């Protein structure tokens, strides 16, 4: 070695020694101080590395540490807010993996028909609304369900009344009442007139204009037939200013968020919204005015438009993200309650196998666009035929593109009624079953009327079979079809107990651990977000729910007494019981 090389080596060694000496002289900074500490509770993390803890520390919008009360006390500083859980349960924020966010808010701004026990009650509600409304103003409501009425209305067509009584109490106001499922609506005579629907109007593709024995429209519109009246209603609202529309949408967002946060929902998969609505959500996110985190599915855009614009709308979670866009929603069939689910065999109570709402060729076009742009495809499929057709379509799309479907994490939204032969295909293809536990118990009392005992037993709400086969199952409510409350869906998932006190094949229930996973980590996985949410793990979002009751251990009947004490999103308390 040269003289210069030797001198350089000595100098570097001396510099390294000096730096080590200086480092040794620096005071020990100790553990990082937390902004918020939850302590003295039972924390179920849904993280297999640390399944349970007593305390948790938050800094900024992420979880800093999880451990014993003594361990977490080291993170308490002068500016730390300490929340004494007093033994209560804390779990990851609930993720509703399928709902309709704006529709939830809008449902709070119209007649609530969910608690009506008879058709006559609904007529009275409309009469009262008509007495207050200006002539010509549309009267809207949502939530009726003919199978939940105490008595069948007379006269009726296919178990649903004719519009006569409704039209009599609202002759000067068009009325539009949406079925609980959203897959049918009931309208009065003036609404039919404004929409140009009469005895000669043909059924649109994917829809039915129900008619009475004389061939006159009864007032019931199934699936795509709703759009005819919907267009007339939209025409009546064309005079609204941009400011009025913006204010109304902001109020819907506020009301939806208020409801969701009060029930422990911190993330919400919106199924789905068009580009204009996503622009609105993006504006709110930039303002900091989205109450909960949204995972939005692109909906009601053509394949050509999506092919052109999807790259501009792809949004992945960065920082304290409240808006993610990386999926597309399609819909192959309707709902079982409205006889719109696409079945392999006819309904037990109607000579029909259901309705096909969107052409398979068009959905295949969406699949190709999605693979090209790295988007997930989430297809509404309720009937056994609808599910089989989409499983076949997904498989063809994967083979055509030469991709592993398990990496794409495509989803079947609802997957309510399956042929047993198709259950194993979900895990084989990597398809996520995006189900709603509450649908099982809410629908259970009348499912036998639609499917018969044998098909109900072998194919209805098979989340146990799907999980046992290795498929990922998430959970939600399809709100406003059902209340956004995760606890009601959790209870339904672990008991399958119906409102009438009977059980819908209880051997198919989830364990409580499975149900909690379906509402947390599985929901995060279903949105490619398991690295930032779904468990109480250091580094992930501090999205936390504190419950008044330990839903993991109490007797099942006590689960429904549970109240949300706190809902925390990104380290901020967004809801406190009573406030």
Descriptive notes:
A hairpin with a 7-residue loop joins strand 2 (42-44) and strand 3 (52-53). The longest helix has 23 residues, at 3-25. The radius of gyration is 27 Å and the shape is globular. The protein is built from 19 helices and 26 strands. Among the domains are: 30-92 and 534-579, Roll (Urease, subunit C, domain 1), CATH 2.30.40.10; 111-236, Diaminopimelate Epimerase, Chain A, domain 1 (Roll), CATH 3.10.310. Helices cover 37% and strands 21% of the residues. By secondary structure, the chain is of the alpha/beta class. Strands 8-17-18-19-20-21-22-23 form an eight-stranded parallel sheet. Strands 3-2-7-24-25-26 form a six-stranded mixed sheet, covered by helices on one side.
Total helical elements: 19
Percent in helix:
25-40%
Under CATH, the topology of the domain at 111-236 can be stated as Diaminopimelate Epimerase, Chain A, domain 1
Structural class, from helix and strand content? alpha/beta
CATH class label of the domain at 111-236: Alpha Beta
Strand order of the largest sheet: 8-17-18-19-20-21-22-23
Please tell me the overall pLDDT. 94
First-last Cα distance = 76 Å
Shape: globular
Using the 3D structure, state the CATH architecture of the domain at 111-236. Roll
Unreliable residue stretches: 1-26
Largest sheet: 8 strands, parallel
- Secondary structure: number of strands: 26
Strand content of the residues, in percent?
15-25%
Per-chain topology:
Blueprint: H1 3-25, E1 36-39, E2 42-44, E3 52-53, E4 55-59, E5 62-67, H2 69-73, E6 81-84, E7 89-92, E8 94-99, H3 101-107, E9 111-112, H4 119-132, E10 139-144, E11 156-157, E12 160-161, H5 164-169, E13 175-179, E14 184-187, H6 189-195, E15 207-211, E16 217-223, H7 226-236, H8 242-262, E17 265-273, H9 275-287, E18 293-298, H10 303-313, E19 323-331, H11 360-373, E20 376-381, H12 384-401, H13 405-408, E21 411-414, H14 423-429, E22 432-434, H15 437-459, H16 463-468, E23 473-474, H17 486-495, H18 512-518, H19 521-525, E24 544-547, E25 564-569, E26 572-576
Parallel strand pairs: 1-6, 2-7, 8-17, 9-10, 10-13, 17-18, 18-19, 19-20, 20-21, 21-22, 22-23
Antiparallel strand pairs: 1-4, 2-3, 4-5, 7-24, 11-12, 13-14, 14-16, 15-16, 24-25, 25-26
Helix pairs in contact: 3-8, 6-7, 10-11, 11-12, 15-17
């Amino acid at each position: 070695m040269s003289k210069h090389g030797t001198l350089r080596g000595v100098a570097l060694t001396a510099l390294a020694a000096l730096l080590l000496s200086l480092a040794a002289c620096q005071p020990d900074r100790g553990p990082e101080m937390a902004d918020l500490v939850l302590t003295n509770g039972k924390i179920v993390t849904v993280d297999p590395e640390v399944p349970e803890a007593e305390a948790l520390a938050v800094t900024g919008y992420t979880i800093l540490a999880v451990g014993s009360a003594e361990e977490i006390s080291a993170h308490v500083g002068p500016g730390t807010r300490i929340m004494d859980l007093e033994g209560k349960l804390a779990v990851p924020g609930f993720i509703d993996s399928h709902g309709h966010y704006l529709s939830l808010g809008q449902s709070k701004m119209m007649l609530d028909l969910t608690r009506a026990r008879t058709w006559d009650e609904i007529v009275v509600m409309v009469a009262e609304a008509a007495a207050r409304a200006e002539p010509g103003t549309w009267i809207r409501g949502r939530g009726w369900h003919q199978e939940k009425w105490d008595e069948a209305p007379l006269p009726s067509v296919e178990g649903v009344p004719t519009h006569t009584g409704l039209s009599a109490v609202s002759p000067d106001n068009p009325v539009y009442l949406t079925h609980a499922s959203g897959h049918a609506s009931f309208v009065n005579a003036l609404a039919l007139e404004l929409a140009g629907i009469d005895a000669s109007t043909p059924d649109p593709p994917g829809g039915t204009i129900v008619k009475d024995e004389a061939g006159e429209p009864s007032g019931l519109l199934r699936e795509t037939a709703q759009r005819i009246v919907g267009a007339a209603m939209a025409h009546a609202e064309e005079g609204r200013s941009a400011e009025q529309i913006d204010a109304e949408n902001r109020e819907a967002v506020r009301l939806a968020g208020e409801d969701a946060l009060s029930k422990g929902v911190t993330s919400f998969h919106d199924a789905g919204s068009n580009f204009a609505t996503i622009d609105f959500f993006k504006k709110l996110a930039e303002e900091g005015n989205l109450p909960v985190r949204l995972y939005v599915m692109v909906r009601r855009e053509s394949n050509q438009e999506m092919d052109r614009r999807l790259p501009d709308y792809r949004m992945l979670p960065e920082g304290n993200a409240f808006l993610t866009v990386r999926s597309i929603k399609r819909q192959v069939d309707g709902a079982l309650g409205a006889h719109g689910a696409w079945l392999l065999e006819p309904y037990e109570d109607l000579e029909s196998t259901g309705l096909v709402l969107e052409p398979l060729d068009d959905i295949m076009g969406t699949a190709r666009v999605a693979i090209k742009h790295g988007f997930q495809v989430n297809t509404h499929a309720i009937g056994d035929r609808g599910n089989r057709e989409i499983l076949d379509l997904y498989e063809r799309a994967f083979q055509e593109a030469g991709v592993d479907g398990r990496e794409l994490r495509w989803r079947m939204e609802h997957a309510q009624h399956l042929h047993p032969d198709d259950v194993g295909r979900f895990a084989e293809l990597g398809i996520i079953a995006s189900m709603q536990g509450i649908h099982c118990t809410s629908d259970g009392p009348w499912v036998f009327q639609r499917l018969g005992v044998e098909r109900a037993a072998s194919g209805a709400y098979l989340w146990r079979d799907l999980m046992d086969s290795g498929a990922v199952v998430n959970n939600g409510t399809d709100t406003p079809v059902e209340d956004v409350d995760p606890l009601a869906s959790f209870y339904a998932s672990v008991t399958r107990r119906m409102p009438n006190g009977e059980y819908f094949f209880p051997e198919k229930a989830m364990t409580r651990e499975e149900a909690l996973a379906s509402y947390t980590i599985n929901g995060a996985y279903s949105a490619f977000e398991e690295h930032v949410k779904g468990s109480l793990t250091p580094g992930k979002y501090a999205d936390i729910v504190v419950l008044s009751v330990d839903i993991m251990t109490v007797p099942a009947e006590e689960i429904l007494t549970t109240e949300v004490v706190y809902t925390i999103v990104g380290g901020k308390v967004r809801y406190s019981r009573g406030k």
